[in-house]
Amino acid sequence: MGKLKLKLTFDKDCVTRPIIYELVKKYDVMTNILNANIEYGNRGNMILEIKGKDENLKLALEYFKDLRVKYEIYAEAIIWDEKRCISCGSCTAVCPTQALTMGKDDLLHFDKDKCVVCQLCINACPIRIISVEL
Amino acid sequence: MRSIAQINEKIKKGKAVVVTAEEVIDIVKEKGYKEAYETIDVVTTGTFGPMCSSGVFINFGHSNPPIRMQSIMLNDVPAYGGLAAVDTYIGATEVSQKRGMEYGGGHLIEDLIAGKDIKLHALSNGTDCYPRKEILTTINKDNINQAYMYNPRNAYQNYPAATNSTNKTIYTYMGTLLPNYGNITYSTSGELSPLLNDPYLRTIGVGTRIFLGGGIGYVAWQGTQHKVEVERSANGVPVVNAATLAVIGDIKQMSTKYVRGAVFDRYGVTLFVGIGVPIPILDEEMLKFVSVKNSEIYTKLVDKSGNVNIDKKFNYAELRSGTVKFNGKNVHTAPLSSLYVARNIALTLKDWINRGDFELTEKVTGLPFENKVNSLEIREIK
Ligand code: SF4
Ligand code: SF4
Hints:
The complex is a heterodimer of chains A (134) and B (382).
Chain A: E1 2-10, H1 12-15, H2 19-27, E2 30-38, E3 44-52, H3 54-67, E4 70-73, E5 77-80, E6 100-102, E7 108-110, H4 120-124, E8 130-133
Antiparallel strand pairs in A: 1-3, 1-4, 2-3, 5-8, 6-7
Chain B: H1 4-12, E1 18-20, H2 23-39, E2 42-44, E3 47-50, E4 55-59, E5 71-74, E6 77-79, E7 87-91, E8 95-96, E9 100-104, H3 105-114, E10 118-123, E11 134-139, E12 147-154, E13 161-163, E14 170-172, E15 175-177, E16 183-186, E17 205-206, E18 209-212, E19 215-222, E20 245-250, E21 259-264, E22 268-276, E23 278-280, H4 284-290, E24 298-303, E25 313-315, H5 316-320, E26 323-326, E27 329-335, H6 339-354, E28 365-366
Parallel strand pairs in B: 1-2, 13-24, 16-27
Antiparallel strand pairs in B: 2-23, 3-22, 4-7, 4-12, 5-6, 5-10, 8-9, 10-11, 12-20, 14-15, 17-28, 18-19, 18-22, 19-20, 21-22, 24-25, 26-27
Helix pairs in contact in B: 2-4
The complex binds iron/sulfur cluster (2 copies).
């Protein structure tokens, strides 16, 4: 089993195709849409996580190529130095996917799975404890 | 009626009942004002937020031969050179001449409190009695003389929430504000905040003993830009920035848990300062003031780009929920001050009082309750 986090960019033609349905059906992958910004009949992009057998993930990428859907794979990961965090919440102001949120306990919570590595939080943290691992 | 002297007697005997400004809300709900007033002697408050108008006075001691320092650098951050021979003041927002905004006065103060060695480089013209012209050495909090924090403006009584009307991201002391009202930031500990629990400053004045940065400090004076004639809700709580405190305390007692250097992206350096003020419950009115809830504390929303005059108020229960409705849209809200640490401060202060380590003080004199704030006009030079 493997996992990939992708940013897909579509143009007009493929926006109307049921891509997610076809992915699940043809390649038996689990999909999780983290963010989507699609105008019907126009350009769009989507941040998608797919989980499945390694060979199926490869086939899924081939499928995107065939459809001419551009994809970028997120290879980096965000590192949050939890011990030094003061839970001020400044980073949550810019996080587009709610990967960084204030919990009921008023501590900062970081949900790695929702993170799309946009890196906006790095400079938004006044204590400078968020970094990116390449 | 209950006096501070009576409360201190109880503290000495270990009999004072102390609760935090959050805990008191549930007690009032359960028992009502009258019974709650009869049981509670002191309510503790706390706040831990970015407070730019902060800094530390230092006396380095004399070298042999001595120097009358005129230009002073601490870890390449300029410190004030116009105070006698070996006194200085380092302000939180000063920036490093080598590293720019990534290191500044705020970080230096944190490092000093942490006990780290700090590079001191000072220059002088030399005088007959102070012949040395240059000194390069290291200092730390144990080998200097006095080092006390004196913050001209802290603990703002309320502060407007911030947003951005323009179509570009702006970078401010209220954090990163996304385009087209893309987010709202706010900075307060709300129902736990010191001056929101004593809206008319009945018990807080010059000489009030407080928790400052992990040690014991005092209210020294009214803070700069202290303002009291402002719009208030029916419960007396201001809906904009109002009263402020100047505070003083020994940094040798402080901890980096409650004093942290910080950077606001493309804005500058600042210092997170932890402050806790104990409020004596002198009568039922004070009990009413301290039982104020987030849903009863409103703040104005301000466009930090300065373009739009927004006429909108939110209460802190709404802001803390994570989203508010504004202009018909759901807008994401984010705090800038740490409620978690603020609560920790209120609990620590409660613990100090319970252990008998901290007694309450009568104010020496009140803070002004009539004043106006001048703005700086561009005047002709004659
Ligand atoms: S990089 Fe930071 S801001 Fe961007 S999604 Fe991840 S946690 Fe959120
Ligand atoms: S901005 Fe930095 S210190 Fe503040 S909550 Fe986020 S990670 Fe923690």
